[in-house]
Amino acid sequence: MKVSGLLSSSLLIIASTLAAEWYPLNRQDEIPVGFTPYKRGENVYMDCITRNIDNGEHKFDEQERIIYGPFPICKETSKPLTFKYGISEDFNCTITFTDELYHLFQLYIHEDAPFSCRLPISSDAHYLEKGGAYVPLTFNLRGEIRESHLDIDPTLNVLITKPSNNNEEENTFISAVAFSSGTNATRVVIGDSLTLNVAVRFLDQLVNADSTTNSLDGIPYASGFYKFPINFVPISYTMLYTYLFMTVVGTAVIIFAFTYNLISHKIKKGSKYKPVDSESFGKLD
Ligand SMILES: *[C@@H]1O[C@H](CO)[C@@H](O)[C@H](O)[C@H]1NC(C)=O
Ligand SMILES: *[C@@H]1O[C@H](CO)[C@@H](O)[C@H](O)[C@H]1NC(C)=O
Question: Which residue's C-alpha comes closest to atom 2 of ligand 1?
Fold first, then answer.
């Protein structure tokens, strides 16, 4: 009895550990329904974990909460890096290496600490300060730590996954990642400026695999694994349709040319081979 009781209670613990729950939750562990959706083109204000430059540890406030701060200022806009909701675009963000930022980048490049930021689920002002839900966005800048300087690959692909039905009520984030994707590194010392070449892509056509929801009751958007297709089309749908159209027209032209050739050839063939046929008939005779 006791053993089976223990067993079933430990099974219960295992079952409850494995039980799935919604991600992301807010600070109160609640599902963030009723968030204010973003409008297309609206500024997304992310913030980033502040760290001690000696050891990369988070900075905490008196309530033991992580202190977040803005992304470094971009010279181009005189503002921290911001995204426009739903807009895929390329832009530059030139940051200046103060003593503190240089030491932080030593930690990031050396992978002692991640360059961790977060995107608020809701577009409400001060949503995150009030304990709102967010998705993490880590900037995986790569490079090398040198004796006297840093080599940094400043090219950044930023992939942002959003609900795929394009229902404006569900304009929020599912996931995001940023990673260096170039072939050159730039040499940086304290006081230098570095231009980050940023390519932001909103992924709004991903199919949510393994979805168990039939309705959105109680959850912000359809559940599931918003998975990249195996045959990924890394171009916009407008471009895809343009290519498809061009292919169709091209194929039609080729088919027409072939058919035309074939028909005219057949006609020629017909007139050419008749005498041969009558010749061979003549030989048989
Ligand atoms: C970004 O800056 C580079 C030079 O570092 C320049 O060649 C490029 O055209 C700029 N790109 C955009 C989108 O402004
Ligand atoms: C990368 O570095 C190579 C070799 O130094 C140079 O030829 C090339 O122009 C650089 N490419 C870019 C995009 O900066």
Answer: 92
Using one digit for the tens of pLDDT, what is the confidence trace for 79-132? 999 999 999 999 999 999 999 999 999 999 999 999 999 999 999 999 999 999
Q: The tokens of 84 are what?
A: 């426009």
Answer whether residue 143 is part of any domain: yes
- Whole-prediction pTM: 0.78
Domain region containing 63: 22-234
Q: Name 198's bridge partners.
A: 91, 156
Token representation of residue 274: 């008749």
Which residues does a 6 A CB cutoff place in the pocket of ligand 1? 90-92, 195, 197
For residue 135, the CA-to-ligand 1 centroid distance in Å is: 29
> In the structure encoding, which two tokens stand for residue 22, read together?
């919604």
Domains in the chain, number: 2
CA 159 vs CA 33, 174, 215, 281: distances in Å:
24, 11, 27, 74
